Amino acid sequence: MSKVIIIGAGGVGTVVAHKCAQNPDVFNEIVIASRTKSKCDAIAKAIGAPNITTDSVDADSVPQLVELLRRHKPDLVINVALPYQDLTIMDACLECGVNYLDTANYEPKDVAHFEYSWQWAYRERFEKAGLTAILGCGFDPGVSGVFTAYAAKHHFSEMEYLDIVDCNAGDHGKAFATNFNPEINIREITQNGRYYQDGKWVTTGPLEIHAPLNYPNIGARDSYLLYHEELESLVINFPTIKRARFWMTFGQEYLTHLRVIQNIGMARIDEVEYNGVKIVPLQFLKAVLPNPQDLGENYKGETSIGCRIAGKDKDGNPTTYYIYNNCSHEEAYKETGMQAVSYTTGVPAMIGAMMFLTGKWVKPGVHNVEEFDPDPFMEQLNKQGLPWHEVHNCDLEVDKI
Ligand code: NDP
Question: Which CATH number goes with the domain that contains 243?
């Protein structure tokens, strides 16, 4: 018998709940808990499975989390709340002897900065408690790391150049909207860019480096170099990598809105006083922007996310390799009521949980996804709605940038 608690009832939480419910042989009991219980109830009602219950919790509070975990006694927490809650949830897991999985690394509320050091600092405590923590198990981070581990296991003796490429060629029909939590998304893309080259991190201005890249079934899209968290663990876990970069596509309309939002101070994360009340402009902006969960209905087009890798094959010869998944917004919406960005995050989180509960990814300590065997996870991607494709010895394009 296995029981999971999903914390967070947003776009990603909704997909995780649907996908866990589709696999009742693994997920015998499912609890959805979030700050606003009515959202959990709505998800449970939409799914309509008898093995789902709901609860409320403020995941910023360790005592509340501890009560929640003691009440339900789950085997695993799937944390799909916000990155701010990672450490409180990990603390509560340690206190209650519960395993842990998330999709985004910890970020303090008052500084737009994310890195793994805060969560890696829990390694020894999880190891001593015999508990497994799986970090960054969405698509990117998540599948991007599993794809890289799969490439290393099956196709390369030495990976030298890694470019993770993330294209959303969908159209939701709104002038401006973010595809996941607007506050987290805007904090991420307005930061300096950063990539890894010959053992050092190179910093660029925000969205300074860009180039058109061709995505399968989509065509050319302007792709911007960003810092992304999986680069930090991948260059450690695959030390032959000489250069690692992350690219994401943005349309001109999106970038113009973003520039205005920044120029008028609406991306600020410090408090300002308005009519005697303290507000954080970016949090206020989130309240007036379209809710990412409501984008699905009219979303057309698809996402394409993958890894482009160059290096030496198993025989030591130079080789190139591209592995990717394309996901349709319409299909994702039909299945779960959410768009493809939530879908491509929620499905891997469910698969990571499945890997743990079926004993394939059990390793006490705190681990990034690429530290586990990629094969059973890759097999499930094909079965659970995110099929992947490989191209060998192709033009990766990224070597020219
Ligand atoms: P949403 O904003 O849609 O949902 C977040 C949920 O967390 C909401 O239900 C919210 O509750 C809840 N929540 C927020 N704060 C608390 C709290 N203190 N206590 C309890 N619940 C809380 O976000 P998404 O679903 O779009 O994203 C979820 C996570 O997935 C984020 O961490 C995001 O960074 C990550 N992500 C990862 C990706 C990947 O590929 N690895 C890609 C996309 C997202 P309420 O409704 O009350 O506000």
Answer: 3.30.360.10
